[in-house]
Amino acid sequence: MPVSPPPGLEIRSAQPGDITSIVDLLASAPDDAALYQYPNLLDHPDALRPMHRAWVRELLQDPTSLTRIAVLDGNVVVGFSSWVRRAPNPDHPGILHRIKISEPLALDPEDGQDGSESPPSIEPDKTRAEAITRVRERLSHTSPFQSIPRYSLQGLAVHASHQGHGIGTLLVRWGLEQGAAEGVPVLTAGEARGVKLYTSKALGFQIVKGSEWWLDRDGQDITDQEAKEGGYSHWESIHGGVSGAQVVWAPPGLSLGIEGVIYRG
Fold this sequence. Notes:
With 265 residues, this protein is of the alpha+beta class.
């Protein structure tokens, strides 16, 4: 049973001084896709810090991206989420574009530099990395939501020592409140652990039909029939595989009809 959020937890927009703490957080809580691509990542938790730092700096300087964080004691970042709002482009009818949802932050070159020694280099498993890229490209090209104005959750993480306290749920609910206020759905994607959180009773996302995917330990696609009939379980993490899906949340009173499937708020 989830534990109540710790006392004094604050949810707010990220600032330049939070970059190092966000990077610490991301290093502590790798997602299933990262663990799949980097089989030795848990032995080298700091190996991806340069990549995380560059990504976070880019997010904070992008006015079409909004980074929200959960903070304890005023400065300890224990949760992270990144949001994008897609709306019709007035210059190109029928096409969505990302609109401004934040004020870009002016960063100094030193912001986020923690003075630590260079982390050990670590290379992804090439076949697995190519498989994850293949899945994500397929979903981006075939998603039935490409023409629907929406909020998109681009990233979510909770510090390993603070998981199970409802922090991730609080971070996601911010986007649901925005979607409800504007009458637009929320879309995101994740691997098995993320999908379990999103589709929980506390959040109420629905899996997008046809978006589920499964990969075995060798980067080979598993068909939905093989996965759902239970005769082939090599996509499960205990066998070195990984799985995921897109999920959608619709605000109360809104129904989305997509390729014959109705998603009701």
